[in-house]
Amino acid sequence: MHIDASSLQKLSDTIVEIGQQAQVMRDNGLSVTTKADQDFVSQADVWVEKALQAYLAMEFPDSGFLGEEGGLKEGKDSIWVIDPIDGTTNYTLGMDYWCLSVAYVVNDVIQLGIVYAPDRDELFIAQKGQGATLNGKALKVVDPLPERVVLGLGRSNRYPLNDYLTLLEHLIVEENIEYRRFGAGALMLCHVASGQIHGYFEAHLNSWDALAGLLICHEAGALSNDFMANNGLYQGNSIWVATRSVWHRLAPYLSKKGI
Ligand code: LIP
């Protein structure tokens, strides 16, 4: 199902409204529960997901829904993939590096990606084949000077620490590449598209963290691994995205690691 311009406008306005409500909820005080080591959920994560699901079920009744907190509701050939608050730890601590991430997938192909970071007032939107924008301005990735590469990284307990440390050593010692880890994969992917960083790697990311940011990167001209391979939609996958020159520079090392 194609998303026309007025539906897209209504949807992005709704995401902005819900994101601003999440700011109010934080300012009013949050209850936070532990899902696993260093993996938390607040009542705002649950509220945001339910609010988005209610809106999408009304506007797109035939579509399915996959959310980080509420899980899967099957649909016909399309599905909305939602991370209500990506960067929950940052959000609960009052840091500005968090976002809402909404992706629309038809027959395993990402058709629409919307990422909104309320504290930064950054609204990223991409539709397949129609480019990517940040607050309405077109995005196009640019290759960095080889000595000025900054790579975004993410890690979790879903992946051996040693492999992460080995990668860090390779980047710093062998490649003289700087890195940043800000704890919200969806927003870091968007900052590849907007040129703040020149690539992003995480050994395992869930589809709700990855899909919207991935389309925004693709539509801005970045290269990536095939995240949807091996049932990536439901199992998650490794994610490796970069500008063309950074991609080709690190691909040999990462392919040795099976990426
Ligand atoms: C987080 C991701 C981050 C990853 C964390 C977690 P959450 O998402 O954005 O990249 O390293 O393990 O998955 O839990 O804040 O939605």
Automatic annotation (TrEMBL):
Required co-factors: Mg(2+)
Keyword Metal-binding appears in the UniProt entry: yes
Classification via PROSITE patterns: IMP_1
Alphabetical keyword list: Hydrolase, Magnesium, Metal-binding
Matching InterPro entries: Inositol_monoP_metal-BS, Inositol_monophosphatase-like
GO molecular function: inositol monophosphate 1-phosphatase activity; metal ion binding
Domain of life: Bacteria
A family per Pfam: Inositol_P
Name under which the protein is recorded: Inositol monophosphatase
